[in-house]
Specification:
Layout: H1 3-25, E1 30-33, E2 40-46, E3 51-57, E4 69-71, H2 102-125, H3 129-133, H4 135-139, E5 146-150, E6 158-164, E7 171-175, E8 190-198, H5 214-223, H6 226-236, E9 244-253, E10 259-269, E11 272-273, E12 280-286, H7 289-295, E13 306-310, H8 314-325, E14 330-334, H9 358-369, E15 374-378, H10 382-388, E16 396-399, H11 404-415, E17 422-428, E18 434-441, H12 448-451, E19 476-477, E20 484-485, H13 490-508, E21 515-520, H14 524-528, H15 535-540, H16 545-553
The chain binds zinc ion.
Length: 565
């Protein structure tokens, strides 16, 4: 043996010794089998009713996964065992391992694989519920598997359209009536007829070692209801074009909730599958708004919510984006202004939208960005919108105008609507001082005028929560009176927008109002500019949102009458 080979064998022997010790401690009998690979260990562990022959990759560490363990000579469908035998020991999320104990990690992995296999054997002897929970993973290992992308929604059996070929997948599925999602470039692709079926119970995929073939299709056809049979006839029937390809999407229930989705394509001729057709299995990547929301951390329940945002500037545009990204399904964005070059660096819209109305720009930017989102753009002032539109069906209102007087007028007007709507008013302070978000309900005590009071409770032009001491000039101009602006950066507007969006989401989930939230910046930039902050800004660093809410709303208010608790 060469020196390298001896070293490799020493390493394998050390790995086996660790496996042996670990299995011994767990009462599992293990032996090493000969294998002519310098990197892989072959071991056999004695299970409760069968031996498990495992091939263990000892080249670990790769830091992102555990060492791979492959079950050999298996002919059975087992949960957490891929078609090719790979045992799924760990999803590797948040994996943190001791890199100085490599053999120990390998031994622990082998023992964990053993217990997975023992549990899977029990599942296989029973109802196989766990195997069918993991069906998509198994199906994805079938020989000849290709990627299919599907924008087909769950629902009744029906004819759908499949497109073959393309840049990002081998097949694309779309509703026959309806436009494909923007990420599906199917215009130049050949269309095929396809069926979508939901089956009441899962069907057995080919066992390890077998390809997808006729028998699987036969079990599908045998499981179809009369209504599904009719759809099947539409897919295969009435064509004189000779041999053609058709496809099928199948949804099957999982015991742990939801459905597995798999698919296949094959050829038909005169209403029947071609005898020696090649069957192509699909790994289905789902592109429906519901699925992407669920998997992407957005709330499906928010899809029915409608939020109106007045003001689409640096803060309002980010509020719109944040609410859409969390799953809110309907937004109305109200703003008469055009995007200016000055806005670009702190606005959700990019330079392509300069000279265009911000509201329309947001519609065209956000709708393709968030599947299932509808944005109504209203290029007009807030008062005009309220004159022309009803708040029926609206679930929440955000005011991000940066205009305190108008915001007070609007909240008074909203209070007169007779509805009980959550209203979030948000604004930010100059430079890096911080930002504010106030949550009110139009039908309850707590109003924006509560905020605009002095320490004695008398009406005041400045919010009692102001961070910037009154009477200071903060606007700057670089090119003359026509372009005066308040200096603050994109981080400040985004942080304020996230605060406001979070406030609105909690309100939609039932959070009581009124409530006041804020974030406090370092104030370094403001200090460098010689700006004076308030005592409240200093105190805010160590004040909780609960205390601040009480400070703002805890006293009786002549306008909304009651004192909030
Ligand atoms: Zn009030």
């Amino acid at each position: 043996m060469s020196e390298v080979a001896v070293q490799a064998d020493d390493h394998l022997q050390a790995c086996f010794d660790a496996v042996y010790a670990k299995c011994g401690a767990a009462g599992v009998r293990v032996e090493r089998l000969p294998l002519t690979s310098p990197e892989k260990l072959l071991v056999q562990l004695q299970g409760s009713d069968r031996p498990w022959k495992l091939r263990v990759d000892c080249t670990w560490p790769r830091y992102t996964t555990l060492p791979s363990v492959v079950l050999l000579e298996n002919k059975q469908r087992l949960a957490h065992v891929g078609y090719g035998g790979t045992v799924c020991v760990n999803d590797a999320q948040g994996l943190s391992l001791d890199l100085d104990q490599r053999e120990d990690v390998i031994a622990s992995t082998v023992l964990e694989a053993f217990s997975v296999l023992e549990r899977s054997a029990v599942d296989a002897a029973g109802d196989q519920a766990e195997f069918y929970n993991e069906l998509e993973g198994y199906w994805g290992g079938l020989p000849g598997i290709v990627l299919a992308r599907s924008a087909v929604n769950r629902g009744d059996a029906r004819l759908v359209t499949a497109y073959e070929g393309g840049n990002t997948a081998a097949w694309y599925f779309v509703e026959t009536r309806g436009s494909p999602p923007p990420e599906f470039d199917v215009k130049k692709l050949r269309a095929a007829r396809a069926a979508y079926f939901t089956l009441p119970t899962p069907l057995e995929p080919p066992p390890p070692g077998s390809r997808l073939d006729h028998p699987f299709l036969d079990t599908v056809l045998a499981a179809l209801t009369p209504a599904q049979q009719q759809v099947w006839q539409q897919v295969v029937g009435a064509s004189t074009n000779g041999v053609r390809k058709v496809a099928m999407l199948l949804a099957m229930p999982r015991r742990d909730g939801g459905h597995s989705e798999i698919g296949l394509a094959f050829s038909v001729y005169r209403g029947r599958p071609v005898a020696h057709s090649e069957f192509t299995p699909f790994l289905v990547s789902r592109h429906t708004p519901e699925y992407m929301r669920e998997r992407g951390g957005a709330a499906v329940a928010l899809r029915s919510k409608h939020v109106v945002i007045f003001g689409c500037g640096a803060v309002g545009s980010e509020v719109a984006d944040a609410l859409a990204s969390c799953g809110v399904g309907k937004l109305t964005v109200v703003d008469p202004d055009l995007l200016q070059p000055d806005n670009v660096f702190r606005h959700r819209l990019g330079p392509l939208w300069t000279g265009v109305r911000k509201a329309g720009g947001l519609k065209h930017t956000l709708e393709p960005r968030y599947p299932g989102l509808t944005v109504h753009d209203a290029p007009m002032g807030a008062q005009e919108w309220l004159d022309k539109n009803s708040l029926d069906g609206v679930d929440g209102v955000v005011l991000a105008l940066g205009l305190p007087t108008l915001e007070r007028v609007l909240t008074r007007r909203l209070r007169e609507s007779g509805l009980d709507l959550p209203v979030v008013v948000t604004w930010l302070e100059a430079m890096d001082l911080g930002g504010h978000s106030v949550l009110l309900r139009t039908g309850r005590p707590g109003c924006l005028d509560c905020v605009y009071r002095d320490e004695e409770g008398a009406a005041d032009l400045a919010a009692q929560t102001s961070f910037l001491a009154p009477g200071q000039k903060v606007t700057r101009n670089l090119t003359g009176c026509g372009s005066i602006f308040v200096p603050y950066g994109a981080l400040q507007s985004r942080q304020t927008a996230l605060l406001a969006a979070g406030h609105m989401l909690e309100a939609l989930a039932g959070m009581p109002a009124p409530s006041y939230r804020f974030w406090v910046g370092s104030g370094n930039e403001a200090a460098a500019q010689g700006l004076k902050s308030t005592a409240w800004w200093v105190n805010a660093h160590t004040t909780s949102a609960t205390t601040a809410t009480h400070m703002v709303f805890g006293r009786p208010c002549s306008r909304c009458r009651g004192a909030a608790s």
